[in-house]
Design goal:
By secondary structure, this protein is α+β, with helices and mostly antiparallel strands. The protein folds into three domains: 213 residues, no CATH class; 81 residues; 123 residues, Histidine kinase-like ATPase, C-terminal domain (Heat Shock Protein 90). Helices cover 66% and strands 10% of the residues. It is built from eleven helices and seven strands. Strands 3-4-5-7-6 form a five-stranded mixed sheet. Strands 1-2 form a two-stranded antiparallel ribbon. The radius of gyration is 37 Å and the shape is elongated. Keywords: ATP-binding, Kinase, Membrane, Nucleotide-binding, Phosphoprotein, Transferase, Transmembrane, Transmembrane helix, Two-component regulatory system. It comes from Micromonospora haikouensis. One of its GO terms (cellular component) is membrane.
């Protein structure tokens, strides 16, 4: 028998081993404890619903409705509305407890009793959560019994077909679905069909209970968190990314237009000074060292400026820069680009570093002979895929650079997907928002 690893019944139903797990029996236990509660609630609702249905039928048929019946319905309806918030409290408490049989996910805690009886009673009539509990109690007393009766009829019919060969005795005929059988031999095919239908029936019972538990969780847990807060977080992150991008461009401009020309001028002046100083002069060697250091500093500064926004990205665009990275790689790399529209600069920069870091990981860790880079643009996203034929087994926890890459992608409101089974191949897919 398989182990129970799903957090709730709805997830377990999607697993292939559901029928041979403990979940069907847990669903049966949940349904068994539902029957008495739903039965009592159905009787209470029936006191009002049955006369109301009779009155509606009379009105529809043009028959007069007597005044005592109308008064009874009005009083009963008001009484039901008055006691419903109070009755629903223990019902909801019991449901919260037994919901764990088929759904181990925690529910939001109920408001604790503060000792103020009047305030607690008033809250039962003014709190939205209390009226959701009322809605659950009404649903449990009206809809659930009808669903359970339908399933019970279906199960009884299947059991009748299954037992039909033993019910036929030659004197009493047995009605099976649309026909009548009078010999056990005629009933055998129906019994076989009923036996084959038993797993389906067992699965349908799980679906019924899963639907009931889903409604119960939705009503007892309440609506999801206000999406406005999530939108504000997203906007805040977008503002931070925009601010970072503006600051990056400022630093790049300052380096390119300020420090880099001055350092170039200094290097030229040192070079000219070396030409004027004899080789046997005591100042010749320190001057040569300063000149070489100035040239090395120029290279370093150029690399820093390029790290802020790579120069080849500015000059060649994303596709050209990706091809340049592929040409510099230690293995063979093919680049396929389908970019019908210009890519926004922040997205382009993020995509460039995705390709650069992914190819560096391939060269360092994948033991691959070939890789492929694919750049595609949809209506809403820029998709970057880097696939190699290496040994696979890439794991962000081992410090392969994927964690930092995922953080960079997340800052651009994108997502990184990784598929790297042992033995390969490895596929890194990044989806970046790229709206026109």
């Amino acid at each position: 028998m398989t182990t129970n690893r799903s957090p709730h019944l709805a997830a377990a139903l999607r697993r292939p081993g559901y029928l041979v797990s403990w979940w069907p029996w847990r669903a049966l236990a949940y349904a068994g404890t539902t029957v008495p509660v739903a039965g009592v609630l159905a009787l209470g609702l029936g006191v009002v619903v049955a006369p109301a249905v009779a009155v509606l039928n009379a009105v529809r048929q043009g028959r007069p409705v007597e005044l005592p019946v109308v008064v009874f319905l009005a009083v009963a309806g008001l009484a039901l509305a008055a006691v419903a918030p109070l009755v629903s409290a223990p019902v909801a408490g019991f449901e919260r407890w037994r919901l764990g049989v088929v759904d181990s996910r925690p529910l939001p805690a109920r408001r604790p009793f503060s000792g103020d009886v009047v305030g607690t009673l008033a809250a039962r009539y003014t709190d939205a959560a209390a009226w959701r509990e009322v809605a659950y109690a009404c649903w449990l007393g009206a809809v659930v019994p009808a669903a359970y009766w339908t399933f019970a009829v279906l199960a009884l019919l299947d059991l009748t077909l299954l037992a039909s060969p033993w019910l036929v005795d030659g004197t009493n005929d047995v009605v099976v679905v649309w026909t009548t059988v009078d010999t056990p031999r005629e009933a055998v095919p129906y019994a076989i069909g009923a036996a084959l239908f038993l797993p389906v029936l067992w699965y349908l019972a799980g679906l019924l209970v899963a639907g009931q538990a889903t409604v119960a969780r939705r009503l007892l847990a309440g609506p999801p968190a206000e999406p406005a807060a999530l939108r504000e977080v997203t906007r805040s992150r977008a503002r931070l990314v925009d601010a970072y991008e503006a600051e990056r461009r400022r630093i790049e401009r300052d380096v390119h237009d300020g420090a880099q020309p001055r350092l170039t001028s200094l290097t030229v002046q040192l070079g000219l000074a070396r030409l004027d100083v004899p080789d046997d002069s005591p100042a010749a060697r320190p001057l040569a060292v300063a000149h070489e250091q100035a040239k090395e500093l120029m290279v370093t500064l150029r690399q820093i400026a390029q790290g802020i926004r790579p120069q080849q990205l500015t000059e060649l665009g994303l596709a050209g820069a990706a091809r340049q990275l592929a040409g510099e790689a230690a293995i063979g790399v093919d680049v396929h680009a389908d970019l019908p529209r210009p890519v926004p600069e922040p997205v382009e920069t993020t995509a460039y570093y995705v390709v650069s870091e992914a190819l560096a990981n391939v060269a360092s860790h994948a033991d691959a002979a070939h890789a492929e880079v694919r750049l595609t643009q949809t209506d809403r996203h820029l998709v970057v895929e880097v696939e190699d034929d290496g040994r696979g087994g890439a794991d962000p926890a081992r410090g392969t650079g994927l964690t930092g890459l995922a953080d960079r992608v997340a800052a651009a409101d994108g997502r990184l997907l990784l598929a790297s089974p042992a033995g390969g191949p490895t596929l890194v897919r990044v989806e970046l928002p790229c709206r026109p």
